[in-house]
Amino acid sequence: MTKIINYKTNQVIIEDDNLSLKQLVEKAVKNNISLAYANLKNAFLYNADLCNADLQNANLENADLQNANLENANLENANLKNAYLFYANFENANLKNADLKNADLYKATF
Q1: What is the 3 state secondary structure string of the chain?
Q2: What is the CATH number of the domain that holds 92?
Q3: For the chain, how many structural domains are there in total?
Q4: Torsion angle of alpha carbons 22, 24, 29, 31, nearest 10°?
Q5: Which residue stretches of 1-110 are H helix?
């Protein structure tokens, strides 16, 4: 069972028996399910389509978001410390107060 947990309330945001974490995150985004406060620390989200995602206050520390599409995503107050953001697309994304300390932003677009 793959689950995404809200680290503030410890409640399950979304879960599925048959999907990988990346697929579950993409399913949530596609279905307009908020991932605010989601614990995605160390998540492997390579090439993920997170366009329009609500990731406010999400913990994405050490996440691999290489080549991810975060266009129009809301990452306000998100923790992206040490995240691998190589070639990630942040066009029109809200990064207000996002923590990008030591994040690898090589060739990321804004």
Answers
A1: CEEEEECCCCCEEEEECCCCHHHHHHHHHHCCCCCCCEECCCCECCCCECCCCECCCCECCCCECCCCECCCCECCCCECCCCECCCCECCCCECCCCECCCCECCCCEC
A2: 2.160.20.80
A3: 1
A4: 150
A5: 21-30
Full residue range of the structural domain in which residue 2 is found: 1-110
Burial (CB count <10 Å: 0-12, 13-18, 19+), residue 84: buried
pLDDT 10s digits, 12-60: 999 999 999 999 999 999 999 999 999 999 999 999 999 999 999 999 9
